[in-house]
Design a protein that fits this description.
Strand content: 35-45%
Largest sheet: 12 strands, antiparallel
Radius of gyration: 19 Å
Structural class: mainly beta
Helix content: 10-25%
Keywords: Signal
């Protein structure tokens, strides 16, 4: 076992103790509000609506991205996201709610069916990540993640697109990013801060999954170099923290839905840097890797 692998496992063990030793999933409202959601939501399996259905997601300030289901074949759902003349094509494993990556070893599981209150599961995987820097530069790095998930209370939640019965799901991840490289001329000046050219950190994601439409209606994401900071964040903390990215469903229906979305209630991008990482932009690969947050 390499030293970096040993350290990651030690970090993961400490992270797990912090997560499962704490009181998990404080709701967004008092008990009467949480109990308003159905006591047993139908979530034995993930049911998606008909092809052509569009989900409209916002990260605030009027920025809305449509995501249209084009079909489902052999447990793989295919989407077109972003609209316009060149939409991004996305393939997703239906039963894990996870996008596909041909380089992945292991399995990434955002959901584990049947979804029931207090259910816990873990997953671990390695993959090569390709990330874009603007429209002209792409770069890659190796990503290793160890994640723990738990289903909390059911909750009736109001978002821009309406009111939905949801499961509140917390996902906490210990990760390491390494071996960054690119053939893009724009990134020729990037260099490594030290010989290992790697960064390790922790992320927390809370998503409110609505079985009735087969996707989350709200997602809160944060990350840090400090495991205690991430593990102790409740869903309510995250929704009020300046370092959280909040994605919200503001429309749901046909392809024209996103042209006139509803106003978002909580969507926003982080207004402060993530705790435990470099505060100011620099030309190191380590900085780019810490700022690439799309993996979890």
């Amino acid at each position: 076992m390499t030293p970096s692998r040993f350290m990651l496992l030690k970090q993961h063990q400490r992270f797990a103790q912090l997560i499962f030793g704490a009181v998990v999933l404080v709701g967004l409202c008092d008990a009467p509000c949480a109990s308003a959601a159905a006591a047993t939501l139908p979530a034995q399996a993930r049911d998606l609506p008909a092809a052509g259905t569009t989900w409209c997601y916002s990260i605030g300030a009027g920025r809305v991205t449509p995501m249209t289901l084009t079909g489902v074949t052999s447990n793989i759902a295919s989407y077109e996201a972003g609209g316009g003349s060149a939409p991004i094509k996305i393939d997703e494993q239906v039963d894990t709610y996870s996008t596909l990556n041909a380089t992945r070893h292991g399995q990434r599981r955002l959901l584990d069916f049947p979804v029931v209150k207090d259910k816990r599961w873990s997953d671990e995987f390695d993959e090569t990540v390709t990330s874009q820097l603007g429209h002209d530069a792409s770069w890659q790095y190796h990503y290793h993640a160890v994640a723990l998930s738990q289903v909390g209370a059911t909750q009736k939640l109001k978002v821009g697109a309406g009111t939905f019965d949801t499961f509140v799901i917390e996902r906490t991840t210990a990760w390491t990013k390494s071996d960054p490289h690119s053939s893009s001329a724009m990134l020729h000046a990037q260099h490594c801060d030290d010989a290992s050219c790697s960064v390790s950190g922790f992320s927390k994601e809370v998503f409110w999954y609505a079985p009735s439409i087969g996707r989350a209606v709200l997602r809160a994401y944060t990350q840090s170099g400090d495991s205690s900071y991430v593990a102790n964040q409740t869903p309510d903390d995250m929704l009020h923290d300046a370092g959280t990215l909040v994605t919200e469903l503001v429309g749901y229906g046909d392809n024209a839905t996103c042209a006139a979305p509803h106003a978002s209630l909580q969507a926003r991008t982080p207004s402060s840097p993530w705790y435990g990482f470099a505060l100011w932009s620099n030309d190191t690969w380590e900085f780019l890797m810490t700022r690439d947050m799309a993996r979890e």
